[in-house]
Request: fold
Amino acid sequence: MEDPRTDGAGSARQEAQAAALGERVDRFVRDRVFPREAALDGGGAEAAEALASLRAEARAEGLWALPLPAELGGGGLSFAAYAELAEAEGASDHGPAALGSAPLLDVTMLARYGRPGVREAYLKRLVAGELRTCYAMTEPGVPGTDPSRTATRAERQPDGGWLVTGRKWFTSGAAGADLVTVMARTSGAAGDREGLSLLLVPTGSAGFRVVRELPVLGTPGQYEIALDGVRVPADHLLGEPGEALAIAGERLRFGRTLRCLRWLGQAQRAFDLMCERAATHDGSRGPLADQQLVQAHVFDALLALRTTRPLVREAVALIAAGRDARTEVGLAKVAAARMLQQVADSAIQIHGAAGLGPDTPLPALFRTGRAARVLDGPDELHITSVARRVLRAHGRTGPPAPGP
Reply:
């Protein structure tokens, strides 16, 4: 599998190809995915049917799993090339799932750190959309910014396997997942940065259960899960024992950058809706587009979009080149989350009461932006981490930056 950190000699050609693909992806998401969002959001049989139909259409049009390895059934685009179309795909929360790129992060990490038997058993099925995965790191009562305090434990068994006990929450998509990557303590005590490991847990295992759904600002999709003495085979350890923080840090930087690209797409969608509303509707004093305060919203939103996109692209370039991207990812994540919230908020303001109701995607886009400033590392974590790193480079010492 191609490492997203090393694009190879064909990267320029791939990026040109991706630009053309981007137009096709944009049309697919706008014409096929947007109209089915209500059904997809509703869950149940109707959502499953809509998603299956979209996936069949994506395959038929040659748009399936574009950034996933060709040898596994994907399109083979490098990460840098995929970034050219990720915004268009991510304009809908359902775009990555409909187009088959949703497992990119899990496929990448499993290909890099999974044992041969695990890779053979799961990778092709993940790319084909036959299996779904999720990631469980955060725990009730434990600060998500300090994974060293992880309470979930995995004890080595005589046959070399593991017995996992603990609880996780805010685990995205856990109810429908077939596999969950779990961070657990395999040695040491709470507070030690050593002794944490990652285990790939089949959700059909005895002792695994979904405790409850945890709607985020009313939006479903997050869950609390329990692992009550779940037996995990020895070869389902990712990497080596004690490597969890290093692997998780790599995973988080890659995943946050992917989400930033998708947030840009969602913010662009909100911006387009705002401009369309301003250009086609009249207020009590004439066309909305002629009002200076409306024009200020448009300007500020465009400024936020245009200044955030280069930060995200810089993070993409560093990750694609295999370079240290911690500072750039931290900047991009905070900027993109704030930007999405700001642009969606302005779009709602221009729509008035219509922007608060179910007839536009604006409430969902706003919720995504607001939640993004807490989930996947709160703003404060990234601000502190980046500032400490910059100050250390200027000769100021201090405690290590928090988090993986």
